[in-house]
Amino acid sequence: MARFKNRKKALAKPPVVKNQPSVDQITGQKIPKSFVFSRGKLPGPLKQLELDIRKLMLPHTALNLKEKKRNKLKDFLNVAGPMGVTHFLMLSNPKSIPHLRVARTPQGPTLNFEIQEYSLAADVARSQSRPSCPKELFNNSPLIVLSGFGSGGQHLKLTTIMFQNIFPAIDINTVKLSSCRRIVLLNYNNETKLIDFRHYSIRLQPVGVSKRIRKFVQKHEVPNLRNLQDVSDFVTKAGYGSESEADEESATVSLASDLGRVNRTSTKSAVRLQEIGPRMTLRLVKIEEGLCTGGVIFTEFGKEVDADPDEGEDD
């Protein structure tokens, strides 16, 4: 009769979860954290937009947040408290019109935006000849810049406060330049009442240094000198030592500290922005006092707009 050996199955070790600090060690302020999720069924492109917004909100967001159809808003709220989540970003598609709700937890207010147009991060990358979006960009939160919001009423002031508090505050005296790798720009057009939402990466390039030399210093790679008569041709020959991009005086900065191998305090550096997406055009349609409920503080159309089909069951 065959004998069966008792083999103990090797148990997989549980993953180590690194808890992110709730308070900034330098500024002493509470670090805002977010959940990005959907309410109701979304078409494929909007579902991808949800994932793009999650990536934009890194590192203080739940990138792999699991959602189920039976989840209510209260389910997310119950988890948000213990995890220190301060904001919800909710995508929905009522009457086939994409909406984005940005809410402060646990008591609101809630800003309701209608997404007029949007482009996914992949669409932005395909439109560029040399797209670049390394993972290291998302190790730190983006900077936030708002333009055109100062000339409006109370609803624009609330919008400004909401977006300013959705990302960690920075101290210009102690911030490390190496951590400023991304920027989110929001521009309000007072005539069209639309908000342009853009997401860029930030690069610094030394002024007066050719692209070939810059790559050589950064990567420490031996250049191909096979077709050159002398090493000096690498610098002086046309196409090697010439500047590939014009540096405007308004786009140059003087660094307070060294940044990398080529950006030094003694030289000027040019600021380069490259869009990495997603891109959205938003219209503010309603502001509610509470978390997706309560009195209407502002409405664009002069009357209460149509509610999402799942709002009633969440409250």
Automatic annotation (TrEMBL):
One Gene Ontology biological process: rRNA processing
A molecular-function term among this protein's GO annotations: rRNA binding
PROSITE patterns with a match to the protein in the record: BRIX
Domain Brix: 32-293
Record GO cellular component, one term: preribosome, large subunit precursor
One Pfam family this sequence matches: Brix
Domain of life where this protein originates: Eukaryota
Protein name, UniProt field: Peter Pan-like protein
Organism from which the protein derives: Canna indica
